[in-house]
Amino acid sequence: MWKYFTYRNTLKYIDILPNLVKGYNHSYHRSIKMCPVEVTKDNENQVWRTLYRPGINIKASFKYKVGDKVRISKTKLKFEKGYLPNWSEEIFTIVKRKAKPVPVYKLSDWGGEPIEEHQRVGDTHVPLLRVVRIGTRKAGEHTSIVKGNWIQYHPLTNITDTGPIQFTVQGSIDDYIDLSQTILHVRAKIVQGNGEDIENDANVGPANLMLQTLFSEVDVSLNDRLVTPSTNTYPYRAILETLLSYGPDAKESQLTGSLFYKDTPGKMDSCNPNAVADVVNHGLRARTQYTRNSNTVDLVGPIHCDLFFQEKILLGGVELKLKLHRSKNEFCLLSSQADADFKVRIVEASIFMRHVKVHPQVALGHAKALERGTAKYPIRRAERLVIGCVDSEAFNGSYNRNPFNFHHHDLNFIALYVDGEQLPWKPLRPNFGDGQYIMAYQTLFSGLNTMFSDKGNHINRNDYGHGYTLYAFDMTPDLANGGHFNLRKNGNVRLEMQFDRALVRTVNVIVYAEYDAIVEIDKTRVFPSDCLPSECFSFPCAFIANTDKADEPGSHWVAMYFDDNVADFFDSFGRTPEECSPYFEHFLKKHSNIIQWNQKRLQGFMSTVCGQYCLFYLLHRCRNLSMNTIISKFTEDPTFNDSLVNDFITKRYNLDLKVGDDEYIVLQIARQIADKYY
């Protein structure tokens, strides 16, 4: 039915209802051992005995075996929070089974200690899909991760002074990746514009958080799908997350590995590291100690991207790509020299990814769960806003302007409106000239969920008015922007700002927004029609894609083949790329000048072998057969065609393949095609 709906672009079923009913009534039913149309008054007793024969003993069907590791499903009370999990965090072992109409299992904890009460183990839809470190009752033990190690990856190409740095982490089906433990390592030095070393007293030093300011944008792709927004504000994200997420202990210890040394409040635009003590920016001077005489400085730190700040482990079999775009030298270096001409030379760059092996039972649970759904990676991307103003010249890159000088610019009014409703309860009206800005300063805690707690950010009230003027707004209904997701909603956000006097310089308003989002990966690690690869690829190459979008269940497979600027689009229903999906048409035009497609319907409306059609076409196309030659192998009879492709794939790959199994088989055979021909 859905094949018909897809082809006709309609949900009207009345036209084919007689055929559907006829097909159902004339099909063999295992429950009654015959077709429904064969049931008559003469054999109705036989049918009844087949279904309900007396004396039959229904044996309990156990889903789990003794020794299996399971979680216990649990029900919520009426007013319990909906975002809490529906199953236990602890993993238990089945030690005994009891046959009842509803199977009963006796459990023990991970250490073998029995549980006093018998628990019924429910069939949760995703029993082990939550890929996190699972604590047990014994402190210090972990049950899902068996072992792990860091692997160093180097760039794909040589590092240049201006080009991006690219990394590729090939996905192994057995290896999971703990992205939250990723380490970026860079060795760099400051040289003159002509490449010569600088002197010990050179008037130049790095901007704060040097490791992150080296890059203006970081692109993250999963299986060639870009999952990060393309913006050139990566350094601002990094500095804001560093300023507001860490206290003095971290800033004075581990964050110095990224060359974070707090800029002196009120002296941020003092860009000469050799200035006298009363006017020098002590943060700049501290950083410069590592770069004098063109010394090579070692830098380590995290990657400030959404996917690397969530705790779930990346499934095996997913290829990860990173592209780090370089910042301007004028942005990441500070100097008061009038004719300053310096640059940063990256000597070496690498990333350390933590690969982990999970318990076989956990991996099996993931595989089973992926048959019913997708792996979901929650990320925070507008649940809260952080707003600051920077000089436009500094934002675009200037040796004598600090890009992280969040000056107040004599702002005297700021208000945020969400769907016309004001946040907070009334506008903030600071007076920086008189030092009256405590309510604006307080937003750094009320807006970041740290108010009245033993947490700080190493920004005191004096710092706030001298280069650290930021405004934070929490837009969650329960003022709890961490720990759980809130309901998704659409709306308009409006920001109003007023200043006490006219601005003498152009100002850029930086808005850092966090909101809830989810990255999903399916069992085949392939993408739907609206998520086709964004990266360039080499020719010849082939793709199999689904006509549904990412948020839809999937309905029909099509094939695409590229070679020498010519693209083939193959749909077993004979539709054009535009009729299947506008995304296909855009994708084909982007990567080719000539597009050809078949105009003949080959597949039956009721069959589910579209995947076999795609494989059949690509296997022959890879042997340099033309589209017309391949299409000529089919007849006007869709039933014959369906059997042809199904039998071909079954015999070629020695499969016990039934009609309808193509959803799993497509990827496996497609990979074999790629391995053999490319």
Automatic annotation (TrEMBL):
Classification via InterPro entries: Papain-like_cys_pep_sf (IPR038765)
Species of provenance: Holothuria leucospilota (Black long sea cucumber)
Lineage top rank: taxon: Eukaryota
Protein name per the record: Uncharacterized protein
